[in-house]
Amino acid sequence: MAAALLNLTGLGLGYVLLRAWVPAALCWAATAALLLVALPADVDGVPGGALLGYAVVLVLAAADAARRARRTPIGWRLRAPVAAGLGVVLLAVPATGALAYDSARDEAVEQMLLDRLDKADRLVKAQEGRPFTTTESEYRDALGIYRGLVRDHAGSRAADRVPDRLDTYYKSVAAPYADRQYCEAIEPLKYLRTLPDTLGKDRLGRLATWPDNRLADSFYACGMSSLGKTGGGSDLRELMNTFPGSDAAAKVVPGIRAAIDERADELKGPDPCSATTELRAIRTTAATLPGSATAGLRAKTAATIQSGSYACGIDDFKDGRYTEAAKTLSGYADTYKDSGKRQRARTIAIAAEVAAARPQAGRKLPAQRGPGSGQEFVIKNDGPSAVEVLFTGPATGSVKLGPCLGCTTYSSRAEGRAKACKASGRSYPQKTLRLPAGEYHFLYKRGTGAGTLVRDHSDGAKVQGGYRYTDCAYVVRGGLGDFAPRT
Fold this sequence. Notes:
Elements: H1 2-8, H2 13-17, H3 21-38, H4 48-69, H5 80-90, H6 92-125, H7 132-152, H8 157-173, H9 175-178, H10 182-193, H11 195-199, H12 201-204, H13 210-226, H14 234-242, H15 247-250, H16 252-266, H17 272-288, H18 295-318, H19 322-335, H20 342-357, E1 375-382, E2 387-392, E3 397-401, H21 413-419, E4 430-435, E5 438-445, E6 447-449, E7 452-454, E8 457-463, E9 469-476, E10 479-480
Parallel strand pairs: 1-9
Antiparallel strand pairs: 1-4, 2-3, 2-5, 5-8, 6-7, 9-10
């Protein structure tokens, strides 16, 4: 028993007791081979086959030593009971070694986990200064490592350090917010708000709600910075839908109201058209905001846009953008039928349309005066299609004449001048105006006639007192006939 126990220690002492040196050396070689395989301790531990083989060697060595000891006296002047006791005591050597190895293996696992933690830390650090759109996948990879440490290795030193690392992680992802880049901060902060579903609110603690106020502030700042732009202000809507009770949401209505007032002041400046365009965008934004408080914004914006439309049309006219002025002011007159400026807008729109073809008509804003007194001015239509005549000068207005039945186009202007409005027995559509004396500019608009698009024609004339004027509009191949008043 003493020889067997001493060999089970793995030190071959049973053979030493029996002075069997060769088998003892074999035991030493087996133990040395095991130590070479096992040390240094690593995460995977000793291969199972090596442990099984070594156990078989120890069992065979113990059995062999027991067999030999039955016929061999114990040397070294040891009594058998003492030798047996020594064997029992020395069994603590492999047991202690196993415990030490397990401890070393646990430390290897800890180091492996710490290396994994360090890898995630380096991954987070490497994303600093880069846009979130290009770093999101790397941040997710780092989060996956943190989550794995907490989930699969709870209680490890690496897992215990994850909460501090998550604090750094959150600050790294939300760096645009710290840098006051609020539009760029929205997406990363949205991402951070999804992490409680991934990691759990209990593990995140205060970080579970950490992004909320920052995201609300970013929605507000970014929405206000884009307010007035096409498609701008959408972040304000998302703010009021996502954080309706936040301090940032409470600032939306006052902020938009102030923006409207600011644009209203700009209507008196050098670029009222840009201010009006921004007001229309603000109106669109206000219309999409939830809550009854925004109804006042929509009414306020609509009233300011009305003023802006008129101011923009006047500015376009003064700057020589006659086509734009005509379109804007005509739209104003059509839209705001109860406006006290409607008729004035219509007058300037007529002058602007004439000036688009005849720039000298736009040297100054037209007087608010229509035909009604002055020299008799008869306009006749000798054309197969209707004609609209716009005029501006001391008086501004327009007349429409229906098509002339039986009238045709002329082959040349000379023929038109000789024959237009002179056919006996034919009734030409006509209207009589009373125009104050002065310089006038005319625009003749045919539209379509005889299935063919007819080019507009412009001309000018000077109306003097004591005369009666007749204007005959006709069509020639190549354009409208010349303006040819007759007294």
